Amino acid sequence: MSCPRIEVDLCKIRHNTQTLVKRLGLRGVSVTGVTKAVCGHPAIAQAMLDGGATALADSRISNVQRLRSTGLTGPITLIRTPMLSQVDEVVQSCEASYNTEILVISALAAAAIRNGSIHGIILMVEMGDRRDGIFPEKLAEIAQQVRQMPGVRLEGIGANFACLSGVAPTASEMVAFGELAEEIERKSGPSLKIVSGGGSANLPWAFGGHATGRVNDLRLGEAILLGVEPLSGDRIGGLHRDAFTLLAEVIEKGVKPKPFPIALAAPSAERRRNEPAYAASALMILALGHQDTDIQGLSLPTGNILIGATSDHLVLGTSQSPPPVGSEVKILMNYNALMLAMAAPDIKVSLLDNLPSGPSECSKHELGHLAPA
């Protein structure tokens, strides 16, 4: 098979989704599966739906269109504020979108009228992450404007936590967010269908014993795909971390001498030169580089260390006998590495769907408050 490639175990994605759906369901919270890290891959999206996700969400309209092109008809929400240049495409492909700008909402309303449809609006609230969101004191006013606007329907509110700031939400912040939903309902009409309290970084809160209040949805990508809690990187009990495996081919092996003491003319070049650690007994070079993924986000097989990387080469040191040229090395990825690798044009995706879907042996680093009941 061609390399580099990503092997995707759909059974493990279904299992991760099922596990999270079951645990969150006991807390009155549904799961929206986020497909942006996998570029809207239809089979992966379907595995999320088969695992019990009630809907899908993505940040790019091209990914949504990829999902629709395969015949997927379930609800899909655009979770990045739509671009004005794409409002017609958004209303044609998405049942709803997250929004922060009244100008964009007005354009979506006009596009929906042209399309003969009603587009759902979820207002994103700024709760301290400092990325996207409407300030809480302006939320009720904007909600009222949306209620009165033909072509759109106010379906709910949402918030981001730990996306830009890297700070996990507190119980008091989540209570305050729920109170905003109640304020909107008091001031502008019917109850909100969706109160989306964040993403995978909210799982410690969701399973921490606090009342979930008005929050009835979480948007989960990283937890489903990689089985980890984003802020700590710890494994979530009972979930698979290895649903995605990156395979790269060995193109050279052997022993390299230490670099010669070459005098570099430019001081900046001297600073850029990588001084590898030669504790390893041998080196091997893989056909993988910065053009393909986030090198720092790779988890190498035991006994191997990262010496360095260029645009097309990954140099590893190994304490073992290096595998022969032409063989494949299996590598796990973090979320950023996965996201870039899935988008890389030279990395193929291979789907596996014949492995057991039950939980594998739990890591000693798994989160106790997310462990199976």
Written description of the protein model:
This protein has 373 residues and is α/β, with parallel strands linked by helices. It has 2 domains: 9-226, Alanine racemase (TIM Barrel, Alpha-Beta Barrel), CATH 3.20.20.10; 244-352, Beta Barrel (Elongation Factor Tu (Ef-tu), domain 3). Helix content is 29%, strand content 22%. It has 11 helices and 16 strands. The chain has helices spanning 10-25, 42-50, 61-69, 87-93, 102-115, 136-147, 171-188, 203-206, 222-226, 267-272, 335-343, and strands spanning 5-9, 30-34, 55-58, 76-78, 96-99, 119-125, 152-159, 194-196, 217-220, 244-254, 282-286, 298-299, 304-309, 314-318, 328-333, 348-352. The strands form 2 sheets. Strands 1, 10, 11, 12, 13, 14, 15 and 16 form an 8-stranded mixed sheet that branches. Strands 8-7-6-5-4-3-2-9 form an 8-stranded parallel sheet. It is elongated. It starts with a strand and ends in a 21-residue tail after the last strand. 43% of the residues are buried.
Strand percent estimate: 15-25%
What's the number of helices?
A: 11
The major β-sheet equals:
8 strands, mixed
DSSP, total strands: 16
Mean pLDDT comes to: 88
Helix content: 25-40%
The CATH C-level name of the largest domain is: Alpha Beta
Annotated CATH homologous superfamily of the largest domain: Alanine racemase
Distance between the termini: 41 Å
Provide keyphrases for this structure.
single chain; TIM Barrel; eight-stranded parallel sheet; Elongation Factor Tu (Ef-tu), domain 3; elongated
